[in-house]
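Hey, can you fold this one?
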Amino acid sequence: MDETVRLTQTGSMRFGAHQAFRPFSARQTIRLSQCEFHWQARTVPFGLIRITDAFSDGTPALEETALGLIPLAHD
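Sure. Predicted structure:
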C-alpha cells in the first residue's frame, strides 16, 4: 500500500539574514513508503515566485522560478 501525506502551509520566510520576511503559501506531499517528498511554495509579489524543494529516488532538488518559467535559483 502506498500511503501519502498531503500538507498545506502558510507562513513567512526570508531569503537572507538582512531581508524582510515575505508571506508564502505551500503544499507538501510526503510518501511514507519511501524517503520522498515534494514541497512547493508561492510567495510575493502576487504568488509569482515559486519555490520547489524535493527529494525523490535519492536525488534532492531545489529551485526558485518567477512565473514558473524564469529560473532565479537552482541546486
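The CA atoms of residues 48 and 67 lie 5 Å apart. Let me know if you want another pass with a different chain boundary.
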